[in-house]
Structure formats: structure tokens, C-alpha cells
Here is the input.
Amino acid sequence: MSTTADQHSQVSGAYSRPDVLEEVRPASIPRRPLIENNRSFTWITQKVCGIVESKTPTWWWVAFIICAAIASFTLMGLTYLVSTGVGVWGLRNPTFWGWAIVNFVFWIGIGHAGTLISAILCLLKQKWRTSINRAAEAMTIFAVICAGIFPLFHVGRVWFAWWLFPLPNANAIWPNFRSPLEWDVFAVSTYGTVSILFWYMGMIPDLATIRDRVPMIFEQRMANAGTAGRQAFERFYFGFRRLFYGILSMGWRGSNRHWSNYEMAYLLLAGLSTPLVLSVHTVVSFDFAVANLPGWHTTIFPPYFVAGAIFSGFGMVLTLMLPLRAIFGLQDLITQYHIDCMAKICLATGSMVGYAYMMEFFIAWYGANPYEGFAFVNRAFGPYAWAYWIMISCNVITPQFFWFKWVRENLWLVWILSCFINVGMWFERFVITVTSLANDFLPANWDYFSPTIVDIFTFFGTFGLFGVLFLLFVRFLPLLAFAEIKAVSKQADVHGHH
Here is the structure.
């Protein structure tokens, strides 16, 4: 009788849901919000635009003057170099690549984080990139500018630097087509061009918002302007601002057609930029890997250089964004989750770099090449051992602290560790470049490389140049991509999960 009832219920679909299925629930992984305190669109717009629209703070002027003074060291160093000769640098036999090439590779590496955050993370739909991509993209461009200085002057006769470009002469022959620097010119110029386009394309909606807010801010300022002279100044100033941001926004009106074209162009630039992240520093590594010098001719250089570039780039992003986060009160937009993600990427890429260091020693031992073995043993225990162990301490040991959650949540520790990462990556470039050249195949040529004061001044000044450009960006352009931030906020959820 019961069997008949069961069959009837099965046919009629009257089976009740088993209790075990009611008890089992799929595991839900709580995701940390990308914008804390459930901030509205209006708050986000006012917060980011307020950085550009407010009066210039005193600290900005102080920082700008200091950075400009530091940048003058590069100007003085390069002026003295051109008027005297490349011999004022510490270049001598056998070390013909000194601080110039070290600094070039260092600054190119710094710029990789911007393109990675913008392009690769965009294609991978990583929404946490939205709060940091704008500053990282700007950092990329300024780092490329700093990097381009050194090979330009390293070639010697800077007035003939146009020979590096693929311009045919009267006989239709490219002057230096076989030069490795030719491919550096291709890589760096392409990288810089695409990075500028990507950076500017992402700013267009935000620039249009700043343009449209000019009349409102003008009325507020005019209400507080008492004298006629002050009012005339405000009219001129805000008229110029509206013209300036109006030109930069390229007639953006926020229509559906504009957004559709914008998203398509942004996606295409992301796809174009992705190979550049991997190819640019790979091309730079070929400047070393194609040589026959022990310590250079290794196939691990391309991935090793790319991982190191991303490592140093994210270190610089943390170094810059953590102070700006505190100064402008951006804790709700640049959350602990963003810092946690960047720290984890530094951990991953730092571990890759440490693995590459170990593999270099293993390959030298396994290859049974006495010159190769000597090159790496000499790096660790020779005259430049101090630089090597600084590199190991900063690049291998330092990022391992990011395994601990309490370290990643301590902002002061994160900032200090990011500074160590930047120091370590410069020493990595120094160790790779100098140690292989200083001890070549002929012991009679061996010499200890020491930089001159011109080397130090020129390199030190590039940090000032970088600071000047970054401060101008912070003051006159939107620091955060608030159009993209709004798209990942809870208020943009179509299901109303606010």
C-alpha cells in the first residue's frame, strides 16, 4: 500500500525535499567591500574632485619646491656631462655600463605596475584595481620619462641621439639597426605612447565631470570674493579652468554612444597594453642576455626581469599611495582590501625573484662552467658582496613578511617594507650590471667600479623630477578614477543591494 502511495507521489511530483538537503547550504565566501561605509555617488565625486578644486595646500608647495630643487641636480649633472664628456661618469675599462644603465633599467621596471593594474587586471575583471589604477598609470608615464634620460645621454653625443630612431639616411640605410639600443627605443617609445593613451582615455569621463562642476565652484568662490580685483581674478581663473578641462574632455557628454565607444576603446587599449607588460622588460633583458659575459647569458633573464619589474612597480605604488591616502582622507576608497591585494602581489613576485636568484646559482653549478660559477660566487662573496646581500635582504627576505596578516594590516610596516623593495630592486640592477662587467675574462682588466659625484647627482635628481611630475598630476588631474569606482560601488548594483 505504501509502495503504491510512493509511486503516486513520485509521478505527481509531490515528493518532499529531503531534510539533508535543507541542512546543507553552499558555502558563502564573504567579500570585503571595495568602498567602505556605503558611500554614495555624490560623495565619491565631491571627494575626488575636491582634491583638484580646493585651494592648493601649503604642504603641496613645500613638497613641490623640494622636488624641484632635487630635480635641479639632474639638470646640473647633465649640463656638466654634455659640456665635459661622458668621462665625468665613473665609466672606465672594463665597466662601460655604470649607473646610467642601472638607473634606466630601474625606472623602466618602476613603470610596470601601472600597465599591469590597468591592462591585465582590467582584462581579468579585477574590480579592486579601480581605486589605484589612475595613480599607477601616471607613475608609469613619469617613470618612463625618467628612464629615457639615461640611455639618451649614455650614448655620448646627445645631439646625435636621433640616430637611435629608425630614420633612413640618404642611402636608405638605417644607421644603427643592429644596435641593441635600437630595440630599446622601439620598446620604450611604444610603451610610453600606449601608456599615455591608456591613461588619458580613462580620464576623459572624470575630466568632463570636473568641467561640468566649474560653474558651481565658481559661484561658491564668487560669493566669498569681496573686492573687485578678486572677482576679476576668479572670473579669469575659472574661465581658464573650464577651457582647459573642456579641451581635455573632448566634448564628452556621457551619452550611451559615448560610453559604448569609450568602453570599446578602453578594452582595445587594455588588450594592446597587455603584451607590452611582458615584452618591454623582456627586450631590456635581451641587452644583457645576448652577451657572452658570465652572469648575463642566461635564459631566465626575461621572466626574471618582468617579475622584478612588477615587484618594484607595486612597491612604488604602495610607497606613493599610502601617504596620499592619509593626506586626502581616502580610506573609504583605498581600503585595507586594496592594500592587502597589493601586498600579496609583492609577496608573489618577490618569491619569483628569489627563486630566480637561486636558479642562477643552480644553473651555474649544473653547467660546470668555471667562469659562470666564479661570476656568481664573486657576486655573493667578492668585492660587491655588500650590494648583493642588500639585494637579497630587501628583495627576498622583506616580502616574506607579507605572509602575516598583521603585517599587511599595519600600514606603517607596509610602507617601510615597500621602501625596502624599491631600494632592493635598484641594488639588483646594480649587481647584475656592474659585477659581471667589473670582473671579465681577463683578470688584468679587473677594476672596482665607483660612481662619481656626477653619477650620484644625476640619479638623485631623477627622484625630484618624478616628484615634480607626480605632484602636478595630483594637483590638476583626478587622482582616482571615480567613474570606475562608482561602477563597483553598492549604489551601482542593479539589484538594489545597497
